[in-house]
């Protein structure tokens, strides 16, 4: 499948990037060939031939036109463009902005990670492996080494939700009457419902949630910072709180989350490449053999990555054994709401959340790598 037609914009600085995004996200339908920005002008040219179309809002709403898409590593966006899930007029390429790369320890013991930092760099970072091991472990499970060399932490946080009825070619989706997430008003997963249940399938966000991560979001209006847990909406279609003129620029991990033992477990059909069909992250800090603090995050079984509510209280002050780990697994399984969005059955994915949570809790308590 070929790419649709679009103009590629390549800013060199964040100021230029937010200026371009503000201009083109609010100027749909105009045939621009570039823009003058402070410093060096952005380059723009046509990609492979095709015909851009408007996106549908679904649910009986009028078509929504999203004129600009942001590309970082491109490992998720390019396949989606080929499937005609997105057909923007412009693609904003952030790869030329060096300021968005790097892992920078802070004087207070925390760390700042640029949104363009590759997953491979996170996986291999000695600092993260020592102080925030659950993040390095989760990053190491994403796709394959080749894709981790391209994919970025910002892209993994902003990953589009996935569903069997959505991640298909235009011909396939047309034959099924489209779906509520793209071009239609019917949810094939929950017929009759008005909610899109496409599953969020990023590996690093549950680890980041366990580490109390915050993200920085930039636009022409300025910069805002919010906890990652407030970034996701819990809806499969409008799954993140990010305006069309905004860019995720940095990730912050607090010093208070450093030093936790961490484990990430992932269910997938193949041992590489595949997105998670269920994923569990666990962080734990112990004192005198008892749990001082712990958190559990899950992914790929809800429209958003989630922290398992009640898990910290259930574990706090206790010695971890099989029964306690099983109780936490039961709690995680009740939090998971998988539907028929993937090739595996919802019952199996929910059960694997239970199993993986139990194993991860036991491994974290025993300081094991599994």
TrEMBL record:
Q: What is its EC number?
A: 1.3.7.9
**Looking at the record's lineage, which domain of life comes first?**
Bacteria
**Record keywords:** FAD, Flavoprotein, Oxidoreductase
Pfam families given for it? CO_deh_flav_C, FAD_binding_5
PANTHER family in the record: XANTHINE DEHYDROGENASE SUBUNIT C-RELATED
Q: Which PROSITE patterns match?
A: FAD_PCMH
- Nucleotide-binding is among the record's keywords: no
Q: Where is the FAD-binding PCMH-type domain?
A: 38-258
> Which source organism does the UniProt entry give?
Candidatus Sulfotelmatobacter kueseliae
Q: Determine if Oxidoreductase is one of this entry's keywords.
A: yes
> What are the recorded GO MF terms, alphabetically?
FAD binding; oxidoreductase activity
InterPro entries annotated for this entry?
Answer: CO_DH_flav_C, CO_DH_flav_C_dom_sf, Diverse_Substr_Oxidored, FAD-bd_PCMH, FAD-bd_PCMH-like_sf, FAD-bd_PCMH_sub1, FAD-bd_PCMH_sub2, Mopterin_DH_FAD-bd
Full protein name: 4-hydroxybenzoyl-CoA reductase beta subunit (Modular protein)
